[in-house]
Amino acid sequence: MRAAGIRGGAVAALVTVLLALLGTAPAQAAGYRYWSFWQGSGSRWAYATQGPGTARPGDGDVIGFRFAVSADSSDAAKPRATGGFGAVCDSTPAKDGAKRVAVVLDFGTPADAPDGETPPAARSACAQVGEDATAGEALAAVAKPLRYDSSALLCAIAGYPRTGCGEQVSGQKKGTEKGTESASPKPAAESDDEGGGVPSAGLLGGIAAVVVLGAAAFWQARRRRG
């Protein structure tokens, strides 16, 4: 009876400690606030696999930029306008030695905006640039001033936002609206674990189960030896 009491007390203590850890683990951050880059096809948007500094759209292509808060690329908010090439560039005649690229800009929602800033209205423009121009050069042709950080991360388009660049946003996810996706993608270099090194609830729950099962097996083996 005394051994059973010790066994039960040890397991209960382990579970109590693990539950306390679960209760004190900090809430995960919502994501990062920044401009995401998209490629258009008909009425659909695909998250770009290259940055605007290396992607080279062809004549007749559509590119889009969306400012929002998101956790990663699978969670990224698309530009809300479909922005077909014809609707944007029909009034810009073709020219030898140049290409036309439709550029769609979505400055996001007030919920996505940094404190004290208001997003400009969404707009589109036809960039006529050299045949070898990158998406970044097409963007610069129609949406200056652009702002980049020291790592060449695009921070601002047409001067928006005035400050900040890919900063982490904590708390409840922002930028959600009816009929739209939630916010924008986390830099690839960041870890998927945003808990500051604290194990997730799922991991701690798994540890709890392993500890309880291990303790039960240990005491059962002791009983058999006895």
Mean pLDDT: 74
Question: Main β-sheet: number of strands, strand sense, barrel status?
Answer: 6 strands, mixed
Count, helices: 4
Question: Which descriptor suits the 3D outline?
Answer: globular
Share of helix, binned: 25-40%
Estimate what percentage of residues fall within beta strands: 15-25%
One letter per element, helices H and strands E, the order comes to HEEEHEEHEEEH
Q: What ranges have pLDDT less than 50 throughout 5 or more consecutive residues? A: 14-28, 172-219
Number of strands: 8
Characterization of this structure:
The chain is an alpha+beta fold. It is 27% helix and 22% strand. It contains four helices and eight strands, in the order αβββαββαβββα. The strands form two sheets. Strands 1, 2, 3, 4, 5 and 8 form a six-stranded mixed sheet that branches. It has a two-stranded antiparallel sheet with strand order 6-7. A hairpin with a 2-residue loop joins strand 1 and strand 2. Helix 1 runs antiparallel to helix 4. About 28% of the residues have low confidence.
